Amino acid sequence: VSMPAAVEDRQATYLLHPVILDACLQPIVLLSSADLGSPESKGFLPSGLNRLTWFAKLPQQVWSHLQLRS
């Protein structure tokens, strides 16, 4: 995940820019959409984070690791 050029100049005002957080959470759609074609499928809305860890200023590109739990 990398910061779009349109908002790079505002990156320094955040520890974690909302654009990066949003982009890192987008893969949740893939984790939760396996049954979207079935009539019984339900929407999925993340309601919290169990843990978010970073140890230094974020670089221009970051990785996102998500784990869906019941």
Structural shape: elongated
Query: What class, by secondary structure content?
Result: mainly alpha
Uncertain segments = none
CA gyration radius, whole angstroms: 15 Å
Number of strands: 0
Mean pLDDT comes to 75
Instruction: Assign a percent range to the helix content.
Output: 10-25%
The string of secondary-structure elements, in order, is HH
Number of helices: 2
Tell me the span between the first and last alpha carbons.
26 Å
For the structure shown, list the relevant keywords.
elongated, 70 residues, mainly alpha
Characterise this structure.
There is one protein chain. The chain is an all-alpha fold. The protein has two helices and no strands. The longest helix has 8 residues. The protein is elongated. It starts with 17 loop residues before the first helix and ends in a 38-residue tail after the last helix. The relative contact order is 0.25. The mean pLDDT is 75.
